[in-house]
Amino acid sequence: MQSEINETERNKSDEDFSLKSYSKEQDIADQIINNSRSMISVINRNYIYEKVNSTFCNAHMLVNDSIVGKSVVEVWGKEAFEKAIKKNIDLCFSGKTIRYEAAFETPSLGNRYFEVVFRPISVGSGEVTHLLAETFDINDLKHSKQKAIEKEEEFRKFETNLPIGFLRCDVDGKILKVNKSFLKIIGCNEEHSVVGSNIKSFYPYDDILEIQYEKLLEHNTTAFDRVYLKNFSGTDIPCRISGYLAMNGSGNPSYIDFAIEDSSRELMLENRLIQAQKLETIGALAGGIAHDFNNILATISGYAEMLQDDLSEKSELSDKINKIQGAVLKAKSITSQILTFSRQVEQEKVRVNVSAVLKETIGFVKSVVPSNIIIKNRIIKNDVNVLADPTQLFRVFLNLMTNAIQAMEEKGGTLSVNQTVVEGKCVKHDLNKDIVADEYVLLTFKDTGIGMDPSLKSRIFEPFFTTREVGKGTGLGLSVTHGIITEMEGEILVSSKKDKGSVFNVYLPVSREDNDLPEIRNNKKRILFIKGNKYESRIFSMALENSGYEMVSVSDLNKLHGVMTDANNKPDIVIYMSDSRQIHPEKLLAIFHQLMIKIPCILITEPNLELLEEKLLNSGIITQHLMKPVSLKEIRNAIRLNIK
Amino acid sequence: MPGILIVEDEKELREMLKVYFTKRKYTVLEAENGKDAIVHFKPSVTDVVITDLIMPEEDGLKVIMKLREFKSSIKIIAISGGGKVGPASYLSLAKALGADAIFAKPFPISSLASKIEELLGEEKNSEQLAQ
Q1: Which DSSP category does A224 fall into?
Q2: pLDDT at position A1, please?
């Protein structure tokens, strides 16, 4: 194409000159077209290339002649043609300039992004006969755009995945921007209902923002004290807030960025720790007091006993001394409960089926529950064993159920008791323990009663803390429950809502078969067990049987007589529950006297003795008196002490 | 008459036990803490020791170990009412260290007395057997 113009040629005719200048212009135009970085082509209405530039040829690694005359389909392939090219060409021939972006593969450039422009042109006539196609390589632009999007996406993920709320507001508190986590904290789904409002509406007091702003003026990045944000459902959410005050070009404050973290869990753990420390302290204190009390009680009961010895049995004073002894026993039961709470009493543990104890407790409670209260129970997994004192477990369940019933006393309601098994690793977080058992039995006691407010809830495990009237309960129930569960390496968690009800979750570690139990050596002592309340009795039987004793249980007089007169199967000891329905204290006394029985006898009564029980106690046949609540340890000690 | 050493820091309780066992014709010796009991121990006149476990100076566990060392045939009864570590674990520890019997306070004093009689009876029997 290039032709050199020399001096001699300049002297040719005008026509010649104009021809030459034409070809010169043509030449320049060709130069421009061919040196363009764009692929340029002219396509006719039959989709045939009529002209292409060198960039086009180079991209396809073909010479000019092998493209011109070819159709667009042949050059770009059928798929690309059908998918994008054809319809755009057709549009262009209707007179419009078409721009679109597409990725093309060319032999020399590979796959790249292009912007394609089709311009309708008319060659010769006024009608659109051809189109001018131009492609601009936008690959790099596209990539950097893509990178920018990815970067933004990455940052967006970063700020949305983090559980930290971000909020930007102007210096007056008008919210300009929030992220998803912030919306989550305040319990709102829509950004637009927050943006535009004032941050002060989430603060419990108006002047918090002013205080924060002043602090930010001193140090433009500041971590503030904990603030309770009001969420959309009206609950206060404890939040940790830090802020950054941004300045504009002229050095004036322009906006504030806040980072807001929900610290509910942190606060909960903090409170739990304080609670545990408090209980520990009270426990140690109460334990010390219990120790001193026991010394004093020992002195009182010793002198009372001596006084009794000095008097003849028929003396009127004898009765009064019995009352002193009764009071001592009652006081002893309280000190022993305090010691249980402060975990200063080791429990005697046996392997015990939790659902069996739970079922007996439910039976016991159902027999006395008022009719306006429904008890539902669902035991998802039966036959799960834990290491426990069944009598203590009974106390735990009984305490929790009694409390639930009392919470529903006035209006009635439903107590739901569920038992299931959960994996330790799944509840590690809930229990906040570093080391957990493999599996836990989870017992849930849920009531629809009066519920508790947070301040009440935080104190329920403290000893002597009670909401009941004076004289109705010692305020030791839940602290004893807490003590027993903690001693079993379990956990008790409470949640409650005022006027809605409470849920107590009890986690007890599951005992596996290979867990070592202290060897039981009772040489199969035979116990004649005179049953009282059937549910409670079954718990005692369970406890003693699992401790290795041979139990002979009776509940009627005939059978009692039968056992007592069978010379081959004499029991080693008798345990008598004074609330036996058929065998009343005087009947037991009569049988002992009639058959001249010399077997040691343990009496189990309620703390308040009835007259007949007192008579039995003073008759000489009772070798040991235990008052409810009785632990397995107490019974076993009594048995050991009394079996020679 | 058999001699009983009562080791108890609570004065009233010690007094009570002294009154009770003196009346039952025992020779009663007293110590108000573990150190006293160990330092002033008279093996020839002491057959039974009733010792509290939690006491100032030396505690009851030390008393059990030391007195058993001084006189192996001595009968030891540990009594406790709880405290920092708890009565049960302390008492079982006492038993493991060689106490012949244990009682959690408050206890019926008659049971304590019969236990002592039983322990001394065993001794008599074994002495008779030896003769």
Answers
A1: P
A2: 43
- CA-to-CA separations, A536 to A137, A361, A417, A432, A580, in angstroms, rounded: 89, 8, 19, 34, 11
What pLDDT does A174 receive?
A: 94
Residue A235's CATH number = 3.30.450.20
Among A306, A337, A368, give the residue marking a domain's end. Answer: A337
* Number of independent structural domains in chain A: 5
CB A340 within 8 A of CB A632: no
Which of B18, B55, B109 would you mutate first to test chain A, the one with the most A CBs within 10 A? Answer: B109
Q: Are residues A360 and A505 in the same domain?
A: yes
| Exposed / middle / buried, residue A434 (Cβ in 10 Å: 0-12, 13-18, 19+) | exposed
Q: What is the pLDDT of residue A284?
A: 75
Instruction: Please compute the mean of the pLDDT values over residues A626-644 and round it to a whole number.
Output: 81
- Is there a contact between A344 and B86 if contact means CB atoms under 8 Å apart? yes
Is A156 a member of any domain? no
Phi, psi of A440 (to 5 degrees): -125, 145
CA distance A289 to A295: 10
Domain of A590, CATH number, reads 3.40.50.2300
Domain housing B28: 3-130
- A181 shares its domain with A136: no
- Which of A308-317, A338-347, A466-475, A487-496 is least confident? A466-475
pLDDT score at A368: 86
Distances (CA, A) of A143 to A108, A146, A151, A193, A301: 19, 5, 12, 36, 93
Kindly identify which residue of chain A lies nearest to residue B113, measuring between CA atoms: A302
As for how many domains chain B has, the answer is 1
Place of tokens 């369970």: A542
Same domain, A491 and A428: yes
Domain boundaries, position A545: 526-642
Q: Is A335 on the interface with B (CB under 8 A)?
A: yes
* CATH code: domain of residue A358: 3.30.565.10
pLDDT at A528: 92
- Does the distance separating the beta carbons of A306 and B106 come in below 8 Å? no
**Residue A19 falls inside a structural domain:** yes
A402 and A316, same structural domain? no
What mean pLDDT comes out for the span A57-78? 87
Asked if A331 and A355 sit in the same domain, the reply is no
Burial of A110 (0-12, 13-18, 19+ CB in 10 A): exposed
Q: Are residues A123 and A81 in the same domain?
A: yes
Most A CBs within 10 Å, among B13, B14, B103, to test the A interface: B13
ipTM, interface predicted TM-score of the complex: 0.80
Closest CA to B80 of A15, A625, A294, A586: A294
Domain containing residue B58: CATH number: 3.40.50.2300
Of A290, A306, A344, the CB nearest to B20: A306
Question: Does residue A476 share a domain with residue A357?
Answer: yes
Instruction: Round the CA-based radius of gyration of chain B to a whole number and report it.
Output: 14
Burial status of residue B5 (CB atoms within 10 A of its CB: 0-12, 13-18, 19 or more): buried
CB proximity A285 to B under 8 Å: no
Chain A CA closest to residue B109 = A302
pLDDT digits (tens, 9 = 90+) for A397-433: 999 999 999 899 889 999 999 999 999 888 887 887 7
- State the average pLDDT over residues A282-289: 77
Beta bridge partners of A135: A39, A116
Sorted by sequence, the CB contacts under 8 Å of residue B74 that are 6+ apart come out as B43, B46, B47, B48, B49, B67, B68
User: Both ends of chain B: CA-CA distance in Å?
Assistant: 20
pLDDT value of position A618: 77
Q: Are residues A254 and A284 in the same domain?
A: no
